[in-house]
Design a protein that fits this description.
- By secondary structure, the chain is of the alpha/beta class.
- The chain folds into 2 domains: 6-55 and 296-393, Alpha-Beta Complex (Aspartate Aminotransferase, domain 1); 57-294, Type I PLP-dependent aspartate aminotransferase-like (Major domain) (Aspartate Aminotransferase, domain 2).
- It is built from 14 helices and 14 strands.
- The protein has a 7-stranded mixed sheet with strand order 4-10-9-8-7-5-6, sandwiched between helices. A 4-stranded mixed sheet has the order 1-2-3-12. A 3-stranded antiparallel sheet has the order 11-14-13, covered by helices on one side.
- A hairpin with a 2-residue loop joins strand 2 and strand 3.
- The longest helix is centred in the last third of the chain and has 20 residues, at 297-316.
- Bound molecules: 4'-deoxy-4'-aminopyridoxal-5'-phosphate (PMP).
- Residues 108-110, 134, 136, 181, 185, 210, 212-213, 242, 244, 252 line the site of 4'-deoxy-4'-aminopyridoxal-5'-phosphate.
Protein backbone atom coordinates (compact mmCIF):
# COMPACT_ATOMS: atom_id res chain seq x y z
CA UNK A 1 0.00 0.00 0.00
CA UNK A 2 1.09 3.56 -0.74
CA UNK A 3 2.62 5.39 2.24
CA UNK A 4 0.44 8.52 2.65
CA UNK A 5 3.31 10.31 4.43
CA UNK A 6 5.98 9.60 1.80
CA UNK A 7 5.96 13.26 0.73
CA UNK A 8 7.39 14.32 4.10
CA UNK A 9 10.77 12.72 3.53
CA UNK A 10 10.80 13.53 -0.20
CA UNK A 11 10.06 17.21 0.24
CA UNK A 12 12.55 17.53 3.08
CA UNK A 13 15.21 15.85 0.90
CA UNK A 14 14.45 18.42 -1.84
CA UNK A 15 15.01 21.23 0.64
CA UNK A 16 18.35 19.74 1.65
CA UNK A 17 19.38 19.25 -1.99
CA UNK A 18 18.54 22.89 -2.78
CA UNK A 19 20.22 24.05 0.44
CA UNK A 20 16.97 25.78 1.47
CA UNK A 21 16.41 23.74 4.65
CA UNK A 22 16.93 25.31 8.07
CA UNK A 23 19.90 24.07 10.03
CA UNK A 24 19.02 25.03 13.55
CA UNK A 25 21.73 26.36 15.81
CA UNK A 26 21.39 26.02 19.57
CA UNK A 27 21.75 29.02 21.85
CA UNK A 28 22.79 27.91 25.29
CA UNK A 29 21.93 30.38 28.03
CA UNK A 30 20.56 33.88 27.60
CA UNK A 31 20.48 35.93 24.40
CA UNK A 32 23.24 38.34 25.37
CA UNK A 33 25.82 40.05 23.11
CA UNK A 34 28.40 37.34 23.90
CA UNK A 35 26.65 34.01 23.98
CA UNK A 36 27.22 30.34 23.38
CA UNK A 37 25.93 29.02 20.08
CA UNK A 38 26.58 25.41 19.10
CA UNK A 39 29.18 25.27 21.84
CA UNK A 40 31.14 28.29 20.56
CA UNK A 41 31.38 31.68 22.24
CA UNK A 42 30.31 34.27 19.67
CA UNK A 43 29.06 37.82 19.41
CA UNK A 44 25.33 37.78 18.63
CA UNK A 45 24.72 39.95 15.62
CA UNK A 46 21.31 38.90 14.35
CA UNK A 47 18.81 38.68 17.18
CA UNK A 48 15.78 40.97 17.41
CA UNK A 49 16.71 41.81 20.98
CA UNK A 50 17.59 45.38 19.89
CA UNK A 51 17.83 46.87 23.37
CA UNK A 52 19.15 43.86 25.23
CA UNK A 53 15.94 43.74 27.30
CA UNK A 54 15.50 39.95 27.11
CA UNK A 55 18.10 39.67 29.86
CA UNK A 56 17.44 42.97 31.69
CA UNK A 57 17.31 42.51 35.49
CA UNK A 58 14.03 44.42 35.85
CA UNK A 59 12.26 42.19 33.35
CA UNK A 60 13.66 39.03 34.92
CA UNK A 61 12.66 40.12 38.43
CA UNK A 62 9.15 41.04 37.27
CA UNK A 63 8.75 37.62 35.64
CA UNK A 64 9.98 35.77 38.73
CA UNK A 65 7.70 37.79 41.01
CA UNK A 66 4.70 37.12 38.75
CA UNK A 67 5.33 33.39 38.96
CA UNK A 68 5.27 33.70 42.76
CA UNK A 69 2.02 35.67 42.84
CA UNK A 70 0.17 34.35 39.78
CA UNK A 71 1.70 30.97 38.90
CA UNK A 72 3.01 29.85 35.54
CA UNK A 73 -0.16 29.64 33.48
CA UNK A 74 -3.35 31.65 33.04
CA UNK A 75 -5.61 28.58 32.97
CA UNK A 76 -7.70 29.61 29.99
CA UNK A 77 -8.32 31.81 26.99
CA UNK A 78 -8.98 35.42 27.94
CA UNK A 79 -12.73 35.52 27.14
CA UNK A 80 -13.41 32.59 29.50
CA UNK A 81 -11.26 32.45 32.64
CA UNK A 82 -7.78 33.59 31.57
CA UNK A 83 -8.10 37.39 31.71
CA UNK A 84 -5.74 38.27 34.54
CA UNK A 85 -5.16 41.67 36.14
CA UNK A 86 -1.64 41.56 34.62
CA UNK A 87 -3.05 41.37 31.07
CA UNK A 88 -5.40 44.29 31.72
CA UNK A 89 -2.66 46.37 33.31
CA UNK A 90 -0.30 45.61 30.41
CA UNK A 91 -2.86 46.91 27.92
CA UNK A 92 -3.47 50.04 30.00
CA UNK A 93 0.26 50.77 30.18
CA UNK A 94 0.86 49.98 26.51
CA UNK A 95 -1.91 52.37 25.44
CA UNK A 96 -0.37 55.08 27.61
CA UNK A 97 3.08 54.40 26.11
CA UNK A 98 1.69 54.48 22.57
CA UNK A 99 -0.44 57.54 23.36
CA UNK A 100 -3.50 55.69 22.09
CA UNK A 101 -7.00 55.37 23.57
CA UNK A 102 -6.63 51.63 23.90
CA UNK A 103 -4.39 48.64 23.23
CA UNK A 104 -4.95 44.92 22.95
CA UNK A 105 -2.37 42.19 23.52
CA UNK A 106 -2.40 39.02 21.40
CA UNK A 107 -0.35 35.86 21.90
CA UNK A 108 2.09 36.83 19.16
CA UNK A 109 2.59 39.28 16.34
CA UNK A 110 1.79 36.50 13.89
CA UNK A 111 -1.48 35.78 15.71
CA UNK A 112 -2.32 39.49 15.56
CA UNK A 113 -1.96 39.81 11.80
CA UNK A 114 -3.49 36.43 11.06
CA UNK A 115 -6.39 37.10 13.43
CA UNK A 116 -7.27 40.72 12.81
CA UNK A 117 -6.71 41.40 9.10
CA UNK A 118 -9.38 38.88 7.97
CA UNK A 119 -11.88 40.59 10.29
CA UNK A 120 -11.19 44.09 9.01
CA UNK A 121 -11.84 43.09 5.40
CA UNK A 122 -13.94 40.37 3.81
CA UNK A 123 -16.06 39.73 0.76
CA UNK A 124 -16.74 42.92 -1.19
CA UNK A 125 -13.67 44.64 0.26
CA UNK A 126 -10.15 45.29 -0.99
CA UNK A 127 -6.85 44.86 0.85
CA UNK A 128 -3.78 46.57 -0.60
CA UNK A 129 -0.39 45.33 0.57
CA UNK A 130 3.25 46.36 0.05
CA UNK A 131 5.00 43.68 -2.04
CA UNK A 132 7.60 43.07 0.70
CA UNK A 133 5.23 42.78 3.66
CA UNK A 134 5.92 40.17 6.33
CA UNK A 135 4.59 36.62 5.93
CA UNK A 136 2.14 37.03 8.82
CA UNK A 137 0.45 39.87 6.92
CA UNK A 138 0.38 37.74 3.79
CA UNK A 139 -1.29 34.92 5.72
CA UNK A 140 -3.78 37.35 7.30
CA UNK A 141 -4.66 38.63 3.84
CA UNK A 142 -5.02 35.06 2.53
CA UNK A 143 -7.47 34.26 5.34
CA UNK A 144 -9.71 37.15 4.32
CA UNK A 145 -12.15 36.86 1.45
CA UNK A 146 -11.31 40.30 0.23
CA UNK A 147 -9.94 41.17 -3.20
CA UNK A 148 -6.17 41.67 -3.05
CA UNK A 149 -3.79 44.09 -4.67
CA UNK A 150 -0.07 44.59 -4.21
CA UNK A 151 1.81 47.85 -4.70
CA UNK A 152 5.50 48.26 -5.45
CA UNK A 153 7.69 48.25 -2.39
CA UNK A 154 7.44 51.49 -0.38
CA UNK A 155 6.14 53.31 -3.47
CA UNK A 156 3.30 55.77 -2.76
CA UNK A 157 2.78 56.57 -6.44
CA UNK A 158 2.16 52.91 -7.18
CA UNK A 159 -0.20 52.76 -4.20
CA UNK A 160 -2.03 55.76 -5.65
CA UNK A 161 -2.34 53.92 -8.97
CA UNK A 162 -3.87 50.90 -7.20
CA UNK A 163 -6.28 53.12 -5.25
CA UNK A 164 -7.30 54.84 -8.50
CA UNK A 165 -8.04 51.48 -10.14
CA UNK A 166 -10.01 50.43 -7.05
CA UNK A 167 -12.26 53.44 -7.44
CA UNK A 168 -13.24 52.26 -10.93
CA UNK A 169 -14.23 48.86 -9.53
CA UNK A 170 -17.89 47.98 -9.82
CA UNK A 171 -19.66 47.33 -7.54
CA UNK A 172 -17.82 49.83 -5.34
CA UNK A 173 -15.72 48.31 -2.58
CA UNK A 174 -17.35 48.39 0.84
CA UNK A 175 -14.04 48.92 2.65
CA UNK A 176 -10.42 49.35 1.62
CA UNK A 177 -7.49 48.43 3.87
CA UNK A 178 -3.89 49.49 3.17
CA UNK A 179 -1.38 47.40 5.10
CA UNK A 180 2.36 47.87 5.37
CA UNK A 181 5.33 46.90 7.47
CA UNK A 182 6.69 49.94 9.30
CA UNK A 183 10.33 48.85 9.05
CA UNK A 184 10.97 46.14 6.47
CA UNK A 185 12.59 43.23 8.20
CA UNK A 186 14.91 42.11 5.39
CA UNK A 187 16.14 45.53 4.23
CA UNK A 188 15.75 47.78 7.26
CA UNK A 189 14.11 50.59 5.27
CA UNK A 190 11.22 52.63 6.66
CA UNK A 191 7.78 52.70 4.99
CA UNK A 192 6.74 56.21 3.84
CA UNK A 193 3.86 56.04 6.30
CA UNK A 194 3.12 59.78 6.16
CA UNK A 195 2.45 59.59 2.43
CA UNK A 196 0.59 56.28 2.74
CA UNK A 197 -1.65 57.77 5.46
CA UNK A 198 -2.34 60.85 3.31
CA UNK A 199 -3.38 58.59 0.41
CA UNK A 200 -5.54 56.52 2.75
CA UNK A 201 -7.30 59.68 3.96
CA UNK A 202 -7.86 60.90 0.40
CA UNK A 203 -9.36 57.59 -0.69
CA UNK A 204 -11.30 56.73 2.48
CA UNK A 205 -9.13 53.67 3.19
CA UNK A 206 -8.10 52.22 6.57
CA UNK A 207 -4.35 52.22 7.26
CA UNK A 208 -2.70 49.36 9.15
CA UNK A 209 1.01 49.39 10.04
CA UNK A 210 3.00 46.43 11.35
CA UNK A 211 5.66 48.11 13.47
CA UNK A 212 7.39 44.96 14.72
CA UNK A 213 10.84 46.39 13.89
CA UNK A 214 10.09 50.05 14.60
CA UNK A 215 9.15 49.74 18.24
CA UNK A 216 11.90 50.41 20.71
CA UNK A 217 13.80 51.86 17.75
CA UNK A 218 11.94 54.73 16.05
CA UNK A 219 10.00 57.67 17.42
CA UNK A 220 10.13 59.44 20.75
CA UNK A 221 11.65 57.09 23.34
CA UNK A 222 11.17 54.13 20.97
CA UNK A 223 7.41 54.63 20.67
CA UNK A 224 7.53 53.48 17.06
CA UNK A 225 6.75 54.63 13.54
CA UNK A 226 3.50 56.48 14.27
CA UNK A 227 5.40 58.68 16.72
CA UNK A 228 8.34 58.93 14.26
CA UNK A 229 6.10 60.56 11.64
CA UNK A 230 3.96 62.42 14.22
CA UNK A 231 0.78 60.84 12.84
CA UNK A 232 -2.59 60.66 14.59
CA UNK A 233 -4.98 57.80 15.23
CA UNK A 234 -7.34 59.16 12.61
CA UNK A 235 -4.56 58.83 10.02
CA UNK A 236 -3.17 55.41 11.05
CA UNK A 237 -6.05 53.29 12.26
CA UNK A 238 -4.23 50.16 13.40
CA UNK A 239 -0.74 50.33 14.91
CA UNK A 240 0.34 46.73 15.30
CA UNK A 241 3.50 45.52 17.04
CA UNK A 242 5.15 42.74 18.98
CA UNK A 243 6.79 42.23 22.34
CA UNK A 244 9.13 39.65 20.78
CA UNK A 245 11.69 42.09 19.39
CA UNK A 246 12.92 45.28 21.11
CA UNK A 247 10.68 44.61 24.11
CA UNK A 248 12.63 41.40 24.63
CA UNK A 249 9.75 39.05 25.53
CA UNK A 250 6.90 37.70 23.36
CA UNK A 251 3.37 38.70 22.33
CA UNK A 252 1.65 40.79 19.66
CA UNK A 253 -0.42 43.92 20.13
CA UNK A 254 -2.47 46.65 18.52
CA UNK A 255 -3.09 50.23 19.55
CA UNK A 256 -5.74 52.64 18.33
CA UNK A 257 -9.23 53.76 19.27
CA UNK A 258 -11.38 52.01 21.87
CA UNK A 259 -13.76 51.00 19.04
CA UNK A 260 -10.86 49.22 17.29
CA UNK A 261 -9.92 47.28 20.42
CA UNK A 262 -13.54 46.34 21.29
CA UNK A 263 -14.02 45.13 17.71
CA UNK A 264 -10.69 43.31 17.58
CA UNK A 265 -11.04 41.18 20.71
CA UNK A 266 -14.61 40.25 19.97
CA UNK A 267 -13.77 39.15 16.44
CA UNK A 268 -10.17 37.88 16.20
CA UNK A 269 -10.26 34.11 16.29
CA UNK A 270 -6.59 33.81 17.20
CA UNK A 271 -7.28 35.98 20.28
CA UNK A 272 -10.55 34.32 21.28
CA UNK A 273 -9.52 30.71 20.84
CA UNK A 274 -5.95 30.52 22.11
CA UNK A 275 -4.71 30.49 25.72
CA UNK A 276 -3.60 33.81 27.17
CA UNK A 277 -0.02 34.65 28.11
CA UNK A 278 1.51 33.08 31.19
CA UNK A 279 1.78 35.65 34.05
CA UNK A 280 5.59 36.01 33.81
CA UNK A 281 5.26 36.97 30.14
CA UNK A 282 2.72 39.71 30.86
CA UNK A 283 4.74 40.95 33.83
CA UNK A 284 8.01 41.04 31.85
CA UNK A 285 6.28 42.98 29.04
CA UNK A 286 5.02 45.47 31.63
CA UNK A 287 8.55 45.85 32.97
CA UNK A 288 9.84 46.38 29.40
CA UNK A 289 7.49 49.35 29.03
CA UNK A 290 8.75 50.67 32.39
CA UNK A 291 12.33 50.39 31.16
CA UNK A 292 11.58 52.16 27.89
CA UNK A 293 9.86 54.97 29.79
CA UNK A 294 12.56 55.38 32.44
CA UNK A 295 15.88 54.39 30.75
CA UNK A 296 16.16 56.38 27.53
CA UNK A 297 19.83 55.45 27.18
CA UNK A 298 19.12 52.08 25.52
CA UNK A 299 17.48 53.57 22.43
CA UNK A 300 20.14 56.28 22.18
CA UNK A 301 22.94 53.69 22.41
CA UNK A 302 21.28 51.52 19.77
CA UNK A 303 21.38 54.40 17.29
CA UNK A 304 24.93 55.42 18.15
CA UNK A 305 26.20 51.87 17.53
CA UNK A 306 24.07 51.56 14.39
CA UNK A 307 25.55 54.70 12.84
CA UNK A 308 29.10 53.58 13.64
CA UNK A 309 28.56 50.09 12.25
CA UNK A 310 26.97 51.30 9.00
CA UNK A 311 29.76 53.80 8.46
CA UNK A 312 32.42 51.14 9.01
CA UNK A 313 30.70 48.65 6.67
CA UNK A 314 30.39 51.26 3.95
CA UNK A 315 34.01 52.32 4.17
CA UNK A 316 35.06 48.67 4.09
CA UNK A 317 33.22 48.43 0.76
CA UNK A 318 30.18 46.34 1.70
CA UNK A 319 26.82 46.88 -0.03
CA UNK A 320 24.45 47.70 2.84
CA UNK A 321 21.38 48.52 0.75
CA UNK A 322 18.91 51.24 1.70
CA UNK A 323 18.60 50.59 5.40
CA UNK A 324 17.68 53.51 7.66
CA UNK A 325 17.43 51.50 10.89
CA UNK A 326 19.49 49.12 13.10
CA UNK A 327 18.77 46.30 10.62
CA UNK A 328 21.79 46.45 8.32
CA UNK A 329 21.78 43.95 5.45
CA UNK A 330 25.20 42.96 4.17
CA UNK A 331 24.18 42.19 0.60
CA UNK A 332 26.31 39.54 -1.05
CA UNK A 333 24.11 38.42 -3.97
CA UNK A 334 24.95 34.76 -4.43
CA UNK A 335 23.43 32.28 -1.96
CA UNK A 336 26.57 30.16 -1.53
CA UNK A 337 28.75 33.18 -0.97
CA UNK A 338 26.38 34.57 1.64
CA UNK A 339 26.47 31.24 3.46
CA UNK A 340 30.26 31.08 3.23
CA UNK A 341 30.57 34.61 4.63
CA UNK A 342 28.31 33.72 7.53
CA UNK A 343 30.31 30.56 8.27
CA UNK A 344 33.62 32.40 8.17
CA UNK A 345 32.27 35.08 10.49
CA UNK A 346 31.12 32.38 12.86
CA UNK A 347 34.64 30.95 12.92
CA UNK A 348 35.93 34.43 13.64
CA UNK A 349 33.43 34.76 16.52
CA UNK A 350 30.45 36.69 15.05
CA UNK A 351 27.02 35.17 14.53
CA UNK A 352 25.17 36.74 11.56
CA UNK A 353 22.70 34.50 9.80
CA UNK A 354 22.47 34.37 6.00
CA UNK A 355 19.09 35.23 4.49
CA UNK A 356 18.67 33.57 1.13
CA UNK A 357 16.00 32.65 -1.42
CA UNK A 358 13.01 32.20 -0.91
CA UNK A 359 13.14 34.78 1.89
CA UNK A 360 14.75 37.29 -0.46
CA UNK A 361 15.17 37.33 -4.26
CA UNK A 362 17.65 34.76 -5.66
CA UNK A 363 20.35 37.32 -6.45
CA UNK A 364 19.90 39.30 -3.22
CA UNK A 365 21.26 36.85 -0.65
CA UNK A 366 22.63 38.64 2.37
CA UNK A 367 23.60 38.52 5.98
CA UNK A 368 21.02 40.35 8.01
CA UNK A 369 22.71 42.05 10.91
CA UNK A 370 20.76 43.62 13.74
CA UNK A 371 22.42 45.99 16.19
CA UNK A 372 22.10 45.49 19.93
CA UNK A 373 22.35 48.37 22.40
CA UNK A 374 24.09 46.11 24.94
CA UNK A 375 27.30 45.86 22.86
CA UNK A 376 30.40 47.57 24.28
CA UNK A 377 32.66 49.71 22.09
CA UNK A 378 35.18 46.84 22.09
CA UNK A 379 32.48 44.40 20.96
CA UNK A 380 31.63 46.62 18.03
CA UNK A 381 35.30 47.00 17.06
CA UNK A 382 35.69 43.20 17.26
CA UNK A 383 32.69 42.68 14.95
CA UNK A 384 33.89 45.27 12.43
CA UNK A 385 37.33 43.62 12.25
CA UNK A 386 35.72 40.21 11.70
CA UNK A 387 33.52 41.56 8.86
CA UNK A 388 36.52 43.23 7.21
CA UNK A 389 38.61 40.05 7.42
CA UNK A 390 35.86 37.67 6.22
CA UNK A 391 34.77 40.10 3.50
CA UNK A 392 38.29 40.38 2.11
CA UNK A 393 38.96 36.63 2.29
CA UNK A 394 35.78 35.81 0.40
CA UNK A 395 36.21 38.71 -1.99
CA UNK A 396 32.92 40.26 -1.04
CA UNK A 397 34.71 43.62 -0.72
N1 LIG B 1 5.64 41.24 11.66
C1 LIG B 1 6.94 41.40 11.35
C2 LIG B 1 7.31 42.51 10.40
C3 LIG B 1 7.90 40.54 11.88
O1 LIG B 1 9.20 40.68 11.55
C4 LIG B 1 7.50 39.52 12.75
C5 LIG B 1 8.50 38.57 13.38
N2 LIG B 1 9.31 37.88 12.50
C6 LIG B 1 6.14 39.39 13.05
C7 LIG B 1 5.24 40.27 12.49
C8 LIG B 1 5.66 38.30 13.96
O2 LIG B 1 5.84 38.67 15.28
P1 LIG B 1 5.91 37.57 16.43
O3 LIG B 1 7.32 37.12 16.57
O4 LIG B 1 5.44 38.33 17.64
O5 LIG B 1 4.97 36.49 16.06
Amino acid sequence: MRDPTAFLGQEYADLVTNATDWKLRVLRGASTPWCEIDGKKVLMFCSNNYLGLSNHPKLKEAAIEAVRTHGVGSGSVRPIAGNMDLHVELERRLARFKRADASLVYQSGFATNAGLIPQLVGEGDLVISDELNHGSIIDGVRLSRADRAVYKHADPSDLERVLGTAEEHSPTYRRILIVTDGVFSMDGDIAPLDRIAALGARHGAMVYVDDAHGEGVLGEGGRGIVSHFGLSRSEVHVEMGTFSKAFGVVGGHISGTKELVDFAYNKSRTWLLSGSHPPPVAAACLAAIDVLESEGEHVRRLWELTRRFKKAMQSAGFDIGQSATPITPIIVGDTHRAKALSERLFELGVFALPIVYPMVAKDRARLRTIMNAALTDDDLAFAIRAFETAGRELQVV
